[in-house]
Write a structure and sequence with these properties.
The protein has about 425 residues and is of the alpha+beta class. Helix content is about 55%, strand content about 20%.
């Protein structure tokens, strides 16, 4: 992963954590504040009021001489519960031995209420019964030696629902904020690091180029030094000496050719092209007729339409020469290399070089314009190849606002073409 992408990821993760933690604690504090408020004010006061009313009613009956039993306390509680029915009160009554006498709280036996059945005053607990949340308060009474626990339950599900609603809305909102922030950060980081990234890419390309060029130099230099050393150190007969001199000469020419192509590649990055109006029919035919191509048994056939383009003659000659040389190395079955020039209908002029040779494997077509890339390294070197011909062609065409297109089928041949912009007519 690239450095600027890692930086974005780290920033987004930190933002997510900070935002999530701050939102969580904010909602959590609001939730507990709501629970505290309803427990200390509303429900606690309601619980004390009911306790006072029940105690008053029981004391009144004691004063009138009525015996206080668990049954009478239960009846008083039922009466009070019916009286308070509009408040949707839930209540349960337990003996001091934790035996349930009465309850309107559904499934109370399925929850833990042991902390409420103590003599400590003002006990309360939060419990979930089925799908609802309740706040339970307990009161401890001792009346005429009868000790009981009264538990009141108040539905506080709305507070939990509000908390869940806030969490859901906050999650959706935070995802939106983080998405927008991520896009903005990505664009900003891309703009900031774009120049550095291009610089790193350029450095890597230069390193790859130097490594490849150094490797290419080793072979001819080794041959030259080896044969020169042999001629220097011992006497050889005429045949061996001539053979050694031929190797030195051919490898020197190869080295010279490689050096010229290297200089061409380097100069293209600095020079601005001076484009001129070129008539393609006469330009290509004159160039082919005058150029000393080493085509062995192959011949060039041209079919060039008249048309005008804007370009640099010397550089376009380099393009055509390299394409012709590559076609020659493909060993055409018909011993022909075809150069075609045609005017297209979209103010373009197309130049094609076609052969019926060995062709290029599909997996190599996209890479043949890379610096020093060779489909068949041994065959290319034997034929005097350097691996930078099509790379140079690609760079020249880029300066002409064009690109190289390759269509090839292994064993059938290759067609390579490029389009140039037509020049305006001169009045």
């Amino acid at each position: 992963m690239k450095a600027w992408k890692k930086a974005i990821l780290v920033v987004i993760v930190i933002m997510s954590l900070v935002l999530a933690v701050s939102r969580y604690y904010s909602i959590k504090n609001n939730f507990f504040y709501s629970l505290h408020n309803i427990s200390s004010v509303q429900n606690r006061n309601q619980n004390l009021l009911e306790k006072y009313m029940l105690e008053t009613n029981i004391i009144k009956n004691i004063q009138e001489g009525t015996e206080v039993t668990y049954e009478t306390i239960t009846e008083y509680l039922k009466s009070l519960n019916e009286y308070m029915e509009d408040n949707s009160e839930l209540v349960a009554l337990y003996t001091e031995d934790h035996e349930k006498l009465y309850s309107t709280i559904e499934d109370i036996d399925k929850i833990d209420i042991s902390s409420l059945l103590t003599e400590r005053q003002s006990n309360f607990a939060l419990r979930k019964i089925k799908d609802k949340h309740y706040m339970l308060f307990s009161s401890y009474w001792s009346i005429n030696n009868k000790k009981v626990y009264v538990i009141n339950a108040y539905d506080v599900s709305n507070i939990y629902e509000e908390r869940d609603r806030q969490l859901k809305e906050t999650l959706i909102r935070d995802i939106g904020i983080l998405s927008a922030a991520s896009i903005i950060i990505f664009i900003f980081a891309k703009l900031v690091t774009n120049h550095v990234e291009k610089l790193n890419l350029l450095v890597k390309q230069r390193e790859d180029f130097i490594n490849g060029f150094t490797h290419e130099l080793k072979t001819p230099m080794t041959v030259i030094m080896g044969y020169a050393d042999m001629l220097r150190l011992k006497k050889c007969d005429e045949e061996i000496s001539q053979k050694a001199l031929n190797y030195i000469y051919t490898e020197s020419k190869r080295l010279e050719k490689l050096s010229f192509k290297l200089m061409g590649l380097m100069s293209l990055t600095e020079e601005k092209l001076e484009l001129e109006r070129i008539e393609m029919n006469s330009f290509i035919n004159n160039f082919v007729d005058n150029e000393d191509f080493n085509l062995t048994e192959n011949q060039i056939e041209t079919d060039i339409e008249k048309g005008y383009i804007k370009g640099d003659k010397e550089l376009l000659e380099v393009v055509i020469r390299n394409l012709v040389e590559n076609a020659n190395k493909a060993e055409p079955k018909d011993n022909r290399i075809y150069i075609k020039g045609e005017v297209l209908g979209n103010k373009k002029y197309r130049v094609s070089v076609v052969d019926k040779g060995k062709g290029i494997p599909k997996e190599h077509i996209s890479r043949v314009t890379e610096d020093f890339y060779m489909v068949d390294k041994s065959r290319s070197r034997n034929a005097g190849g350097t691996g930078i011909g099509l790379s140079l062609v690609k760079k020249i065409l880029e300066f002409h606002k064009s690109s190289l297109h390759i269509e090839s089928e292994e064993g059938e041949g290759t067609a390579v073409y490029f389009d140039l912009k037509e020049a305006e007519n001169e009045n």
